[in-house]
Amino acid sequence: MTTVDLSQVDVRCLNERLHALCGCEAQTEWQIIEPDGRHSIAVGMDAPARVTIEGHVGYYCGGMNQQAEIVVNGHAGPGLAENMMSGTVWVSGSASQSAGASMHGGLLIIRGDASSRCGISLKGGSILVGGSVGHMSAFMAQAGQLVVCGDAGDGLGDSIYEADLYVGGAVAGLGSDCVQKDMTDVHYQRLTHLLEQARVEADPQVFRRYGSARTLYNFHADHAGDY
Amino acid sequence: MAAAGERNATSDLAARRQSAAFPPQTIAEIQRAASEGLYEIRGWGAKRSVPSFNDLLFLGASLSRYPLEGYREQCGTKVTLGTRYAKRPIELDIPITIAGMSFGSLSANAKEALGLAATEMGTSTTTGDGGMTNEERQASKTLVYQVLPSRYGLNPDDVRRADALEIVVGQGAKPGGGGMLLGLKVSDRVAAMRTLPPGIDQRSASRHPDWTGPDDLSIKISELREITDWEKPIYVKMAATRVTFDTQLAVKAGADVIVLDGMQGGTGATQDVFIEHVGIPTLPAVRQAARALQDMGMHRKVQLVVSGGISSGADVAKALALGADAVSVGTAALVALDCNAPKHMDDYAALGTAPGYCHHCHTGRCPVGVTTQDPELESRLDPKAAARRLRNYLATLVLEAQTLARACGKSHLHNLEPEDLVALTPEAAAMAQVPLAGTNWIPGAAPTD
User: Fold this and answer.
1) Mean pLDDT to the nearest integer, A113-142
2) Is A40–B223 a contact, with Cβ atoms under 8 angstroms apart?
3) Does any CB of chain B come closer than 8 Å to the CB of residue A83?
4) Residues of B with CB below 8 A from A218's CB?
5) Which residues in B lie closer than 8 A to residue A80 (C-beta atoms)?
6) Which residues of chain A neighbour B198 with C-beta distances below 8 Å?
7) How far are the Cα atoms of A115, A118, A122, A123, B218 from residue A97, in angstroms, in the given order?
8) B294 touches chain A (CB under 8 A)
């Protein structure tokens, strides 16, 4: 276990050390203390390391992550795990806006709530939020899965493409072209697996699934008001 | 007097009197809109006439200035971009780069040709909405990787193999608008790169998903620097609108390079109303940006690249004289590849157009294989032959710009200055802040004692 104290070492130095792991297949363990809301902690990683951050992080923690398992024992600022490709980012608290923005892969788990635009432009991978998400979550989500155990704010899934959204609580309102869809056995299996991965105790049977009505896939005069 | 039932020239003229408010093109557009119920979508840039570099003239040397020998004395063209923070700035042999254009909008052959030509000329090319293809990475010695609102195909592996990153805030053809790629061009390969269903009319976001405003941009730039270990220059590309403020904010946010795209800048597909009615021309934009940099003491420290309608060596020289460090060409580069070439005339006719007028990039039916994903059409563009044409064109631009610079007595293109220029019209004089030719009048300039 390597411990890095961000009150003594700057983020740039930390990231350079984490990037030096690229190509290393050994599963190293890192503990980051005194993050104090700093931005861009553990961004651009490409190694199967486990990085545990003891405290709150600012913008873009875990951005563009590949392979690494990043644990935040605290809250996270905007753009958490943005554009993650693979690996896992786990937050014990809540996350600010745009968590998991344009994620292509991997697993993002937020045990608390996530603010607006959670999963915006999602392109793959899975996001599981133990609490609720704010407005415009999964806006233009293209692929992947967003699981919300609590409630979803207004405009959920606006202009969604092929992503799957699962909500256990109430939905304040659906965005353009987002509709409720049937839950099949396949969807229950996927959802159950995700809940188990996140170690969240919730009954899959109470969840509803949302996805694209696919009416906005091609421009049409009669849909002009929906764009 | 003509007999009843007969017509004469005078009555013919009266009968065909054109309305200024409703000329034939306006009538046609109203009727098209009435039929289709959607705005017109097309490629290329603004077709309206706006003040441009053509409205400026170089003064050249005479008694008060002396020229350099045109065929003997050196006139430097090298430029370095990204000197502010990046460990590895971009060194270019010429101050003319290839603008960002997507694979998807362009064919793979066209992207490869752009890369080959840029490499041969010692300059850079740029990806676009949709990610980086292996063909363009292999063809391009220096490749700028765009980070766009859509984030299509954006991945850290390509970030690492890029030479610079360009955060795209906007482009001149559509300031404030997102990208668009109509279904005919969303082939299986394009769709896979963008994680979209094939054949859809693809809409790109107009705002980035994880930041809004200059304070966030500053943090975003820092994140990209962290991801790249502060090695690669970070460009910020903006459409020319509120240029002074936007330039100042981009500098404050930490940009290494500002790319400014005037309203003549092209697009693969956008609403015509956007192309023609939003943004300002390149001419005033470059002057405003240069002044903003000068006011901040950052001119030449944060490099300025301007684009939008650059088509000749004279345009290059004038843009540099007004304060740009380099220019970027898009549409002109495609024309050099073969865009609008008088070949395959039946295919132009099938689109309802003709060489010299075609802006049908959006249809995917490009007769010359530049803006298509159709394999048969794409095969019409030989990447190596097209690259040779573009290489020739870029070389010509450089020679023309050097010719003008030497005539003004400059030993490097960057030594050109506003004092070398006059304007042909009051409008151009006001926008470029150079005197109207034959006068010392600069409209809008602060009075001097």
Assistant:
1) 98
2) yes
3) yes
4) 183, 199-201
5) none
6) none
7) 5, 6, 14, 17, 17
8) no
Contact A223/B at CB under 8 A: no
Test A120 with B197 for CB contact under 8 angstroms.
no
Q: Contact B195/B152 with Cβ under 8 angstroms?
A: yes
Q: Which residue of A has its CA nearest to B181?
A: A218
Contacts of residue B429, defined as CB under 8 A and 6 or more positions apart, other chains included, come to: B422, B423, B435, B436, B441, B442, B443
The residue-averaged pLDDT of B411-435 equals: 98
Residue of A nearest to B192 (CA): A123
Q: Which of A210-219, B140-149, B304-313 has the lowest average pLDDT? A: A210-219
- Any CB–CB contact under 8 A between A147 and chain B? no
Q: A58 at the B interface (CB within 8 A)?
A: yes
Which candidate, A157, A150, A158, places its Cα nearest to that of A133?
Answer: A150
Q: What is the DSSP letter of B199?
A: T
- Which comes out higher in pLDDT, residue B208 or A226? B208
pLDDT digits (tens, 9 = 90+) for A48-85: 999 999 999 999 999 999 999 999 999 999 999 999 99
Provide the pLDDT for residue B7.
66
Domains of chain A from N-terminus onward: 2-226 (2.160.20.60)
Residue B4: pLDDT band (50, 70, 90) is low
Residues B103-124, mean pLDDT to the nearest whole number: 97
- Interface check A14 vs B, CB under 8 A: no
Determine, for residues A44 and B226 on separate chains, whether the beta-carbon distance falls below 8 Å.
yes
| Domains of chain B (ranges, CATH numbers) | 53-338+382-432 (3.20.20.70), 345-380 (no CATH)
How far apart CA A37 and CA B136 sit, in angstroms, is: 39
ipTM: 0.96
Cα torsion angle, B270, B276, B279, B280, sign: positive
